[in-house]
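Our platform keeps sequence and structure together, in a single record for each protein. Such a record has a labelled line for the sequence and another for the backbone structure tokens. Nothing more is needed to write down the fold, since each code stands for a local backbone conformation. For reference, a complete record is included directly beneath this paragraph:
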Amino acid sequence: MNSVCLTFCLLLLSPFATKTFSQPPDPSQIPEPQIAYALHATWDSDLTDNNPSVCTTSGTVAIPSFHFYAGWKDGAPAFFSVDWVLIEELTNEHQPQVWYFENLQGSSGFPYGCTMPPVSDPENWNWTTFSFAPMIGFAMHNTAYRVTVQWRYGVYMKGQRGPFQTSITINVQNMVVTSPDVGRVLRWDPEKDIADTSFSYNIECAQRKQVQVTVRIYDMNRNLVYELTEQKICPGSYSFTWDGTVNTSYYEYPPEEGSNIAPSGLYTFDVEVVANPYDRDAVRSQALTVVPGPVEYFGYDDGGTPEDESDDNYLYYLRWYALYSGRDASYGEIWLYDPELERVKIWLVPVLQCVVHEGCDGLTANPNGEIHGVIIPVPVSLMEKAGTYRFVLHFYDDYADSYKNHQVKAALEVNQQVNRPLPIVWISGSYANTTWYGIWCRDPSTVRRLTHYEPRGTLVINWVHNNISSAEVKGACNGGFFTGLTLVGHVGIGTRWVGNDISTSSQLDRYAFGMRDRGRSFSFNILPIDISQQGNNYVYSLPSNIRQYPYGLSGIGLLVDNGQGRGRPNEGNNSPFLGRTSRTAIAWSNDRMHFFLIVATNNQGWTWDNTVNFFTQELPRWMRENLPIWMQTFRQQLINDRVITQREAPVFFPDHPVNIQISYAIMLDGGGSSQIAWEWRRRNGRRAVRFHQEIRDGQPRQVPTFVEVNANAP
């Protein structure tokens, strides 16, 4: 049985025992394959029809995508790979856009929808397709681009071929919207039949498509007044006329009740065009924001004859504004419009003097806002009409390198009117049979607040008069604890706090305030003074949170705390003004727009409650009801004294009521002698005016501590 099986197995193997295998083929005998390749940009020239995308290697396109493919037929198989792809913008206007890709992955087959095969029989070839940059087309600028592919292939049994480089150059024209009317504003005053509210815009693109167009109308404070969205065809040129109506809820200054007609004035516009979330553009810059500040009267050139207004050549205004952007503005103008809404003058910003930055061109910006104040010389002949004049800010960003058409964009125009009053004013009145005197600071952007310590003491009235400069308004009143010239409180004097802790035999409320001026920003804090007992005395030390402020004073007590009056039961609410001849106090409004220095006499006696009520009730009432009359009388006196002219009077001292609410007030000191002084010295010292008051029960007292306010003034 075993021998039979063995014989059968040998018979089965016998054919292989004499079989010989052939040698591997000679690579030189294998034919080289035919190779074909192509690099294309693909795009759809018309999205409103049903035609598919097309391929191109040159010419103008919009939102292109790209593919490279290579194939072989006949001969040995070929295997294709791409080393890298380089897409580079061909421009000298800025740092070119560049995209670089490595080691692209290919897929088998002919590219879907390709309209430019490199051979007549693509179905007979073996293709490998590399598609790339499907979204980059949206980001391309409207200029020329070169697309380069480095590729190679390997042939079976023959090795690598290449590398090779293939390039195409195309021109891109993506969608942009522009307007030839950016250099002007819309003028609207239905009572004067002024309705200059039409503008045009152009949508440019190599690709025809339907787009959503949103027209927005803004007032000169960037409040949205009107908005309309329409469907349009791109490319195309269109016009729009605003009918003067308001149709948004964002408008900060609504028109009269029952009417949707916008108030008369100047307006500006923007146009946004959207094809899809990745394909959009707007007329206005989103990278630069211009925030208007006040327009301050700065003085005038009197032609050498101060008493004769007929030969005055120029009125000078200080135009404040802030530029918010990651780059400086590239260009800026200031336009003057008269009461008839006619543009009567244009100034180039870089040629105007900036009072904030020496040698500045007025165009510097930063993301947190760069503040500028430029002096504008206005010919007197341009401001002879009665009414409101408007200084409009017109600036362009510096982001041409990021925009598709390489053109800078204008920010929304903004405006501020010229009626700007003097920032520090002398005021006075009577309350509870007592006369009070005050210094009212009403412009936080220009007023500086300081505290002083004079080791040898000073008369506040003399100090103000001897330390005021030309074109400055200044005021001061004394405050703080001292015995003789020895401080028994604390005062911040810029870099440190000086003085001594207070020691008393009874535990009474004492407070301290700190202030900080940072550029044109103001902050403050009020805290109770720390109390500790040492033997039979109570010692008051300055809180650490107050020491961080460079200016401040210790005070007798807090009168108003967060808008609420505070009682003083441990000193007696009914004690006459703490039993002293006079007292000084300071106060802040809840919006921090107003700051007061107050000195009150004590002829008949204010109780603590009287003092609290003065700040919570009487002073707000006086500002509403008595201030207009005070201003009329005050400015007439200055006119009679030839300090101001009739033309300047309503600008410096408007006679409208002012609504305030006092959020904090603190009593400083005073005692047997208090002084308050206000002085305004006109530019070049030609004219000056002083108001001051001293309340004392003996000889005038030199004091070491006082509070000062000052501001630039024409």
